[in-house]
Structure prediction request, 238 residues.
Amino acid sequence: MKPSRAWTAVLCLAVLAGLSGAAGTEGFRENSAVSSEKGRLSVYFRDEMVGFEDYVWSEDDFGYTLEVIGRMTKPLDLDVERLTIHLNKSFIAYSYIFKGSIGGLRQEVTSHLSEGRVTHILTFAGQETRLEAQVRRDAFLLPNPLFSPYIVLTKKFRCGQTEKADCAAYIIPQMEVPLRVEPVEGAPCRLALAMAGVQVEVETDADGNLLSLLIPSQNLKVTKNSGQLDRDSLKPLE
Prediction:
């Protein structure tokens, strides 16, 4: 995606260095969730549908889990075989797994987070690398170029945010950037986000479900589909 030089640099590094992947089983795992919900996000680039992300958001006694599979063809070729984020009850991530390919380059990332310390195991072109990083303890994990992780943010803030909040976004496993979250005047269920020179607007509902996401500078729009998730329909786009 190309909203700004800063954002382009993040994306290029992710593709060239292979910093966006992970290990695990195919599809969604079974768990003993107390409650769960599922849905599909459709991705549009310049008003053309170019991809989808199917997700399951579940809650258990320990916290929350977001699981995602999906496909996108523009503005970047992306195949998500598995994305899993585990969070505690305060929406603080402690585990991140990605398995798939970006720009045709297969890659995997497994990350463990504890009190702001992050340990990554990266697998790219058959070679494994271990990296460590220090980030803000409550940073939102927003791997580029994926959209379902914004669900964590909407679940936390929901509707009715009245004041600005200065947070942090971790473009995992790349870099941490400042993230400002503020309500949109006259629209209590919309939030304006600013990070790394990129403006993002998200719309949620009272339950924190992500209904839409808009990135004007990238000509990108994401909307939640109505109806039940059909896992048999998860086929690559032509």
